[in-house]
Amino acid sequence: MGAPVPAADALAAPRAGGILTVDLAALADNWRRLRDRLVPGCQCAGVVKADGYGLGAGVVARTLYAAGCRVFFVAHLDEGLRLKPALPTDARVSVLSGPLPRTEPEFTAAGLVPVLNSPEQIEGWARHARTRAPGASAAIHVDTGMARLGLTDTEFSALVDDPDATRDFACDLVMSHLACADIPGHALNESQAEAFRRARARLPGVPGSLANSSGIFLGPGWHHDLARPGVALYGVNPTPGRPNPMADVVRLQARILQVRRVDALMTVGYGATHGVESGRRLATLGVGYADGLPRAAGGCVTGYLGDVPVPLVGRVSMDLITVDLGAVPENQPVAPGDLVDLIGPNNPVDHVAARAGTIGYEILTALGSRYARRYVDTRCSPTDHGAGGAGEGLTP
Ligand SMILES: *Cc1c(COP(=O)(O)O)cnc(C)c1O
After folding, report:
1. Which alpha helices (H) appear in 38-132, and where do they start and end?
2. Exactly one of 49, 53, 371, 375 is catalytic; which is it?
3. Ligand 1 lined by 181 (C-beta under 6 Å)
4. Substitution candidate for ligand 1 out of 176, 177, 223 with most atoms within 8 A of CB
5. Which pLDDT value is given to residue 359?
6. How many CB atoms lie within 10 A of CB 162?
7. Which residues, given as ranges, of the chain have pLDDT below 70?
């Protein structure tokens, strides 16, 4: 078994310390799988904040659009301003953090829909709509038990008791967010569902949205009219502790820069934290914490050379890690340029996250900007997505 050199390796020229491959067919497939789970009439949005969870918001959103997605969420205005022009005009791009004072005109000029999270945001939006953008759309966020963004019970009651407060704009969505959706037995899920039902009853006729990725799997009672999955689209397991119902989207390969045969009893890397005996074969790879690989992964995470596990040893450096080739057959050549999977079929993102003491969300959104990024589409025809044709290619 040789070192894994993918067929298209020539494309991702060995100028970067690692290659990040994003499977757009798997991404589109994940969106369809989630959509197909929803109750009839419930739409499936795509949450593409944080640059599409680190994978590239533009290409991710265009892929989801081609699969049928028409509603997108980002966190901040800047993200929305970048994303909106990358999508056909009938895509709704909604900004979860809502407008900060005096940014309202930027929303309407760009065709972005704010989520209004506080009485101040509602007042600001109403004033803007009244004077400059009559009937402008907005979503209203009610807090049902997370104390993060959204109106408190008291604020929401005051709002619905004052018909003037929302007269000048079109409130076309009421939403809330679940704190414990990934823990199906948690009492907060039922209590948030109940609080959301009560809130919706006070805004009759306004569509509702409650579920994130994991919320979809809590059951139909959490679906309402629009689901807002993020992380599951990207292959992270929305049902922790149970088999992952999603397809893997991300592969992360680190380039071997140097292979050495240790010739003395010594230690590896900064801090001299890991001892190796003479005769051991090690490889140094061109990925480090500056690429988003958590420093806590040192000594915990295992890479794979093909199907052979090669554990990280010593500390993670800024640009480098070291792996132990002890399990690789002695007669198997390993050379600079070969690739080691840090995230791949043998070590999906959830495993890597668990080993490094974090969650898949953090691993993905921390993925650095130095990787050669390769977007592949293994199953769709070129017309199925807007990422630039069949097969694969390097896309910014
Ligand atoms: C991030 C976010 C989502 C998506 O959550 P996932 O757990 O990634 O599916 C949905 N809604 C809101 C308000 C969010 O902030």
Report:
1. 49-53, 57-67, 77-83, 104-110, 119-132
2. 49
3. no
4. 177
5. 98
6. 10
7. 1-13, 379-396
